[in-house]
Design goal:
InterPro entries: AAA+_ATPase, ABC1_TM_dom, ABC1_TM_sf, ABC_transporter-like_ATP-bd, ABC_transporter-like_CS, ABC_transpr_CbiO/EcfA_su, Cyc_pep_transpt_SyrD/YojI, ECF_ABC_transporter_ATP-bd. One of its GO terms (cellular component) is ATP-binding cassette (ABC) transporter complex. GO terms for molecular function: ABC-type transporter activity; ATP binding; ATP hydrolysis activity; peptide transmembrane transporter activity. By secondary structure, the protein is of the alpha/beta class. Helix content is about 65%, strand content about 10%. The strands form 3 sheets. Strands 6-9-10-3-11-12 form a 6-stranded mixed beta sheet, sandwiched between helices. Strands 2-1-4-5 form a 4-stranded antiparallel beta sheet. It has a two-stranded antiparallel ribbon with strand order 7-8. It is built from 15 helices and 12 strands. The two termini are about 70 Å apart. Helix 5 runs antiparallel to helix 6. The protein folds into 2 domains: about 250 residues, ABC transporter type 1, transmembrane domain (ABC transporter transmembrane region fold, Up-down Bundle); about 220 residues, 3-Layer(aba) Sandwich (Rossmann fold). The longest helix has about 55 residues. Helix 14 links the parallel strand 9 and strand 10. Bound molecules: adenosine-5'-triphosphate (ATP). Adenosine-5'-triphosphate binds next to helix 10.
Length: about 550
């Protein structure tokens, strides 16, 4: 994540203007106090002029204060807005591997809680700038009143800062712990929502989630947060006590010892009382700023990708027609967890040409989906090469490579918006209606202005809608990962015997990951995976299967 200074760089001139207005307001406020003090001492010679000066200063305090605050609030909110969009853009630009290893709860935590915390810290910025300037102006006035007393004040300030630093470090450590526990809590929140069916049926599981997983983390977070806030409250009161000690010392030096004149004494007391508010306000803002820095650090540790710029037109022009996808010694490795070696796919050699219907088969966990992600460029090869039309897949060629594919993985997300990537003046709604009918979803789902009326359907129907979106994307290579697994036998037949041949006839290359051995013979080629290796092109097995099916059909 960018540091705060980098974030502030584009708005530095507005910030300067806001600081200038704050300085003016602070100077006018201190000027008012100085004027009251002077008038108390030397009386009012010309009441009209005095009232004019007083009214003018009040008007200046008001106008410059409002101006500074409005400018700073706009600045703060603008920063939050940019930060928010930038973070989402960075999530969108993060490689799939990274997002998978982070897991959804950590990303949600950053997108929701961390952003809010950083926003809250930024909202302190105007307050801190305004009160900081007020404090500087007040200090200047105190120095002007009496240099010796001012030096004593500096000693008191040094003591206060010592307290801040000492406690601030501990508060930060505690807040870091609260932030870590937040990730644990978000994981449990995900379990509470996503596991609703299992939890709904099982009180022991609900109890376990609540008592063993949620409560301990929530309790520790509460303890750490309370400790942090309490420590800071001690600090706030320590500062207040120091201010009163300072006032007492000045008062004693002025009245009992006669070391300070009455004018200086009154001025000092007035100015110090006046400065109590900005001091307290700044100190109040510190925990929010610490939390903001902890949140920025947590966002940093996610190691998200770079944000893509979406403001301009989509520059990627039409891609050359798909000819061939070739794997040579290609492999991919998942890092191991807890000393276990991770799963290794490859090395694999295979070639897929335009218009082919390819089936990828193999047992559970044999690496079919991983191969699907490698073929489509969602994963980059860790060894060997994956080349599309002769262009090797790497982080630079990946966007174009991915542009050839449309996929439905088992954990697909169903978008309600239909994107017609043809970009022609085709009538999106009419095309959607056509496919809805083809997929036997007419009467169930409607489309209006490119948006589906509902996505709340059965799993099999949702998969058909995902297929509709894939048709609309009109990409040359389609990867369907166990698409038919949720379909009824009738529609499964339609899929293998009608939809796949239609796609092939339309010049599409289709890679289907499947366990439906009844239909293996319909593919141009079948590749079988076992423990991450291509074990055979299952021609022999196919022949046996086809003859077996024919015998069954004949009976
Ligand atoms: N995100 C991941 N992080 C780490 N390891 C993973 C991840 N996804 C899969 N694996 C590992 O890779 C192996 C292959 O998984 P993959 O999903 O490719 O299998 P598959 O052949 O598609 O299985 P299935 O038929 O059950 O869908 C798994 O055994 C698992 O150990």
């Amino acid at each position: 994540m960018q540091s705060i200074t980098t974030l502030l760089h584009p708005v530095r001139w507005q910030l300067m203007l806001a600081i200038l207005a704050s300085a003016l307001s602070a100077a006018a406020g201190i000027g008012l106090i100085a004027w009251i003090n002077r008038t108390l001492e030397s009386g009012m010679a010309d009441t009209g002029a005095a009232l004019g000066l007083f009214g003018g200063l009040v008007a200046l305090v008001f106008a410059s204060g409002v101006c500074a605050q409005v400018l700073l609030v706009r600045l703060g909110q603008g920063l939050v807005y940019r930060l928010r969009l930038q973070l989402v853009a960075r999530v969108l630009g993060t490689p799939l591997e990274r997002l998978e290893s982070l897991g959804a709860p950590l990303v949600y935590n950053a997108l929701t809680r961390d952003i809010t915390v950083v926003a809250a810290a930024f909202k302190q910025l105007p307050i801190a700038v305004y009160n900081g300037l007020l404090l500087i102006a007040g200090m200047a006035y105190l120095a002007w009143l009496d240099l010796t007393l001012f030096l004593v004040t500096q000693v008191v300030i040094a003591l206060a800062i010592w307290g801040d630093v000492l406690l601030g470090g501990r508060v930060k450590r505690l807040m870091r712990r609260v932030r870590q526990l937040d990730d644990t809590l978000f994981q449990q929140f995900e379990a509470a929502v996503e596991g609703r069916n299992e939890l709904g049926l099982s009180r022991p599981r609900r109890r376990h989630l609540y008592l063993q997983r949620l409560q301990p983390a929530a309790e520790e977070a509460m303890r750490a947060a309370t400790r942090a806030e309490a420590l800071w409250a001690v600090n706030l009161n320590w500062t207040t006590a120091l201010i009163f000690l300072l006032l007492g010392a000045v008062f004693f030096a002025g009245t009992a010892l006669g070391l300070v004149s009455r004018e200086v004494l009154v001025g000092y007391v007035l100015a110090t009382m006046f400065l109590r508010t900005p001091i307290a306000t700044i100190l109040d803002a510190v925990p929010a700023v610490i939390r903001g820095r902890v949140a920025l650090g947590a966002i940093d540790r996610l190691e998200l990708g770079r944000a893509e710029d979406y403001s301009g037109p989509d520059s990627s022009g039409p891609l050359p027609p798909f000819r061939e996808l070739a794997l040579e010694g290609a492999g991919y490795h998942y890092p191991g967890v807890g000393g276990e070696p991770g799963f290794h796919l490859g090395p694999l050699d295979l070639r897929i040409r335009r218009g082919e219907l390819i089936f990828l088969v193999g047992g559970n966990g044999s690496g079919k989906s991983t191969l699907g992600k490698l073929l489509t460029g969602l994963y980059l090869p860790g060894e060997g090469s994956v080349a599309l039309n002769g262009v090797s897949l790497d982080e630079f060629s990946a966007p174009d490579h991915r542009g050839y594919f449309a996929t439905i993985f088992p954990d697909f997300y169903l978008f309600a918006d239909v994107l017609d990537e043809r970009g022609r003046d085709s009538d999106v709604d009419a095309r959607v209606e056509h496919y809805l009918e083809r997929l036997a979803l007419d009467g169930k789902v409607r489309v209006q202005a490119g948006r589906l009326s509902t996505t709340a359907l059965s799993q099999g129907q949702r998969k058909r809608l995902a297929l509709l979106l894939l048709y609309m994307e009109d990409r040359p290579v389609l990867l369907l990962d166990e698409w038919a697994a949720d379909q009824d036998p009738v529609f499964r037949e339609v899929f293998y015997r009608e939809l796949l041949p239609e796609l092939k006839a339309a010049g599409k290359t289709v890679i289907a990951i499947t366990h439906d051995d009844r239909y293996f013979h319909l593919a141009d080629r079948v590749y079988k995976l076992d423990s991450g290796k291509l074990v055979s092109w299952v021609a022999g097995e196919l022949q046996t299967k086809v003859s077996h099916d024919r015998v069954s059909e004949a009976r």
